[in-house]
Specification:
Layout: E1 4-8, H1 14-21, E2 30-33, H2 35-41, H3 43-51, E3 55-62, H4 66-77, E4 83-87, H5 92-105, E5 114-118, H6 126-132, H7 139-152, E6 157-159, H8 162-172, E7 177-180, H9 199-204, E8 209-212, H10 214-217, H11 222-234
Helix pairs in contact: 4-5, 7-8
Bound molecules: orotidine-5'-monophosphate.
The site of orotidine-5'-monophosphate has 19 residues, from β3, β8 and α10.
Length: about 240
């Protein structure tokens, strides 16, 4: 998990995934299956990506009452993915229930997937958080608070922007996972993301894993883009 580059497969059907992954067939990737793809193709897409040899972060961001999240996680555990997530805003009891569900659902002998919690989405600015969610503290404080709550609930880490990762790691410890989306190489289109960072900045902050979608999937040459982002992330001199 540490130092991974996770490619977000935000595609609407299996054929697009097959086409995208074809040139990567000799490389073991970690990919993210999110709601667009999972809602379209169901659990079968997870199976087919696993058969292709890749690791999977199943990003469905569960956020509901504890009992419902527990049941949802129990079902997801059977898919044999490597990482799942919830929204920390669902609260400590909900996060504890998520873990219980996962542990009760895993196939015997299989390692429990990492379970992490989204703090503040990287598409949220401090101004939006304060005026729309009515959270009256600085954004970094809200993210750190959610990270501490996540740690207390026993989860493995958080989703946060690279801008908050250093603070979280120094306060909670280096074993706590920080998974950062909103990654944009210099000059790349930012789109709907608000708290963005370059792969190099993420590495310097000690981020555990970066999540990259459109800068690779929409690139004219996805392989070239993947290699260049990976090199920047790993600190390989170009
Ligand atoms: O949980 C996530 O993966 C996630 C959390 C977050 O705060 N921000 C965020 O962008 N993501 C996901 O990370 C991916 C980022 O994609 P790009 O903006 O295209 O690189 C998307 O699939 C989002 O769903």
């Amino acid at each position: 998990m540490k130092n991974s580059l996770i490619i977000a497969l935000d595609f609407s059907d299996k054929q697009q995934v097959v086409n995208f992954l074809q040139p990567f067939k000799h490389e073991k990737l970690m990919v993210k299956v999110g709601m667009e793809l999972f809602y379209a193709e169901g659990p079968a897409i997870v199976q087919s990506i696993k058969e292709a040899g890749h690791d999977i972060f199943l990003d469905l961001k569960l956020h509901d009452i504890p009992n419902t999240v527990k049941g949802g996680m129990k079902s997801l555990a059977r898919l044999g993915v490597d990482m799942v997530n919830v929204h920390a805003a669902g609260g400590r009891e909900m996060m504890e229930a998520a873990l219980e569900g996962l542990e009760s659902g895993i196939i015997a002998g299989v390692k429990r997937p990492y379970c992490i919690a989204v703090t503040q989405l990287t598409s949220t600015s401090e101004n939006q958080m304060q005026t729309e969610q009515l959270i009256g503290v600085p954004l970094q404080e809200s993210v750190l608070h959610y990270a501490e709550l996540t740690k207390q609930a026993g989860l493995d880490g958080v989703v946060c922007s690279a801008q908050e990762a250093g603070l979280i790691l120094s306060s909670i410890g280096k074993d706590f996972l920080t998974v950062s989306p909103g990654i944009r190489p210099a000059g790349n289109v930012v789109g709907d993301q608000k708290r963005v960072a370059t792969p190099q900045f993420a590495r310097e902050q000690g981020v555990s894993a970066i999540v990259v979608g459109r800068p690779i999937t929409l690139a004219e040459n996805p392989i070239e883009s993947y290699v260049s982002i990976k090199q920047e992330w790993e600190g390989v001199l170009l």
